[in-house]
Amino acid sequence: MLTITKEFHFSASHVLDRLPSWHPCARMHGHNYVVVLELSAPRDALTEAGFVRDYRELDAFKKWMDDTLDHRHLNEAMGGVSPSAENLAVWIFDLWSERLPELTAVRISETPKTWATYRPAARGGEDAP
Ligand SMILES: Nc1nc2c(c(=O)[nH]1)N=C([C@H](O)[C@H](O)COP(=O)(O)OP(=O)(O)OP(=O)(O)O)CN2
Ligand SMILES: [Zn+2]
């Protein structure tokens, strides 16, 4: 299995309003988010050029991210889903997995020290069918 990743950046605010009120993240605050898309393909399924998928074909994802998430309030942009890093990873995966069939994982960083990864078992890795 071959795996490629590409990193994207956006800035947004959120409120984790399902947390208890004493929790700092229950207050409005913002992050400079990092999103990493991971795409995978078996070695015998690479394109003629030797790509899992051309990185440049991910320009559409960047445009969507800029339009939908950048400088937005994630509680609104995500339609009421609690905007944790975990839920954001799942939400992005579910929105993009049909358009990017090679998508195997979405990783989200809110701070330089934190990462959340959504990697559905059936879609990638050594155990994939
Ligand atoms: N499992 C999760 N825990 C937390 C999430 C999350 O999405 N998933 N989100 C937050 C906050 O939104 C934010 O990311 C703060 O995280 P935290 O690590 O507390 O950030 P700090 O910069 O304040 O941490 P320091 O330890 O002071 O560097 C909270 N938890
Ligand atoms: Zn936060």
TrEMBL record:
Record's keyword terms, sorted: Lyase, Metal-binding, Queuosine biosynthesis, Zinc
GO BP terms in the entry: tRNA queuosine(34) biosynthetic process
Catalysis performed (reactions): 7,8-dihydroneopterin 3'-triphosphate + H2O = 6-carboxy-5,6,7,8-tetrahydropterin + triphosphate + acetaldehyde + 2 H(+)
Record: residues binding Zn(2+): 14, 29, 31
Lineage top rank: taxon: Bacteria
Pathway: Purine metabolism; 7-cyano-7-deazaguanine biosynthesis
Pfam families: PTPS (PF01242)
Active site residues according to the UniProt entry: 25 (proton acceptor), 71 (charge relay system), 110 (charge relay system)
Cofactor binding remark: Binds 1 zinc ion per subunit.
Enzyme class: lyase
Family annotation (Gene3D superfamilies): 6-pyruvoyl tetrahydropterin synthase/QueD
Cofactor(s) the record lists: Zn(2+)
UniProt EC number: 4.-.-.-
GO molecular function: 6-carboxytetrahydropterin synthase activity; metal ion binding
Record-stated family: Belongs to the PTPS family. QueD subfamily.
Name of this protein: 6-carboxy-5,6,7,8-tetrahydropterin synthase
Annotated organism of origin: Streptomyces cinereoruber
